[in-house]
Amino acid sequence: MDVAVLGAGLVGNWIVKTLASQGFRVVAIDSDPSAIKKLENIADTFQQNVDEELIKSLDVKVFVNALPGRIGHKIRKILLESGTKIADLAFTPEDPREMDEIAKKHESCLIYDVGVAPGLSNLLLKEANRRHGKLTMGRVRVGGNPSISDGQWSYMAPFSPIDVIEEYTRPARIIRNGEIIKLPALSERELFHVEGRGEMEAFLTDGLRSVLDTVDADELTEATVRWPGHIDMYIQNKDKFTESELVDAWAWDSKKSEFTWMEVLAQGNGSARWILDDEGTQAGSSMARTTGAITCAVVKYLLEEETPIGIYPPECISSDLLLRCTNEYALHGIKLIDENQSF
Tens digits of per-residue pLDDT, 156-204? Predict the structure, then answer.
């Protein structure tokens, strides 16, 4: 077997279908019977919780950790001890590099944060660093949202809503005046115009992660983008709703159109700007495919290349990984516009 995908939710489902359609032998594992049923005629499947016994029983070349953050972190050590290659999509507050000694002891290679942001955003900031030297400013704005604001939450979670709640509460680490500092999540809110979409709102979240120490910059920030009113509603109601009630309120609705938008802007000896603006299609939601395509590019790299043992963020693993990611986007008609300019 080539690939085992742990977690067959919205993004995991897309990854399984895509890799299988490209000729890879894939097995999908999820405890949710409805998630497994959608993949029964596409890949091998296991309907069960992911545990050590299951992982040790699988003879695969690459694991994809597409589990919710809390579960995904617990399973990392087991994956690393299996002596294999891992594309890790689980968004956790813990730095996976803390397990680097375990990876090296068992000759495993784990590449983490293999989505849009963090993930593609890391690669673009590193590319700006390469082109323009030390950055005087780097900024990521990113969000997946319904195409039309509904005047209420105006949001539905394309991945684990619990991870979204943690994103809204975890202090945001940024670089300011060359120093890493922490600010409260949801701070520095600003309204701005998104071409073709209208007025949106951005606020700081903790999405920079590894680039805090891998990209040379005086200023770096990452902000999540939502429709105006969403965060006001969250702040006003967060103590009134239980976690499970918020999960229900943000439930994914496949009947609603949605889009993913990201801007990566950087300035150094020159300037660089990339724009991602993608609509969902019948082949998959926008967030599923823009995230999953990056994961698939990393999976193919792990399958095709000799990889160093240890744990790495995407911007530190290979100079051609960005090209692999943009090529994967092109395969699926996902447009990433490069608007690089020189001063």
Answer: 987 777 788 888 999 999 999 999 999 999 999 999 999 999 999 999 9
For 13-31, the pLDDT digits (tens) are 999 999 999 999 999 999 9
pLDDT at 148: 93
Instruction: Return residue ranges of the chain for CATH 3.40.50.720.
Output: 3-115+293-321
Per mean pLDDT, which range of 115-129, 202-216, 227-241 is the poorest?
Answer: 227-241
> Residue 197 is encoded by which pair of tokens?
């979409």
CA 304 – CA 322 distance, rounded (Å): 15
pTM assigned to the model = 0.95
Say how far apart CA 317 and CA 97 lie, in whole Å.
Answer: 13
Taking the alpha carbons at both ends of the chain, their separation in whole angstroms is: 50
Count the helices and strands in the chain (H runs, E runs): 12, 16
State the CATH class of domain 3-115+293-321: alpha beta
- C-alpha angle with apex 29: 146 to 61, nearest 5 degrees? 110
Q: What is the 3-state secondary structure (H, E, C) of 40-63?
A: CCCCEEEECCCCHHHHHHCCCCEE
Answer yes or no: are the C-beta atoms of 227 and 154 closer than 8 Å. Answer: yes
Instruction: Give the Cα separation of 235 and 226 in Å (integer).
Output: 14
* Beta-strand pair 109-112/310-312: parallel
Instruction: Please state, for a pLDDT cut of 70, what percent of the chain lies above it.
Output: 99
* CA neighbor of 28 nearest in space, from 71, 74, 75, 60: 60
Q: What are phi and psi of 230, to 5 degrees?
A: -60, -50
Residues 38, 261, 12: CA angle, nearest 5 degrees: 20
C-alpha separations of 95 from 145, 181, 202, 212, 290 in Å: 27, 17, 25, 12, 23
**CATH code that applies to domain 120-284+333-338:** 3.30.360.10
Which string of DSSP letters, residue by residue, matches 203-238? Answer: EE-S--TTHHHHS-BS-EEEEEEE-TTHHHHHHHHT
CA-CA distances (angstroms) from residue 232 to 58, 127, 220, 222, 315? 46, 35, 25, 19, 34
The CATH 3.30.360.10 domain(s) of the chain lie at 120-284+333-338
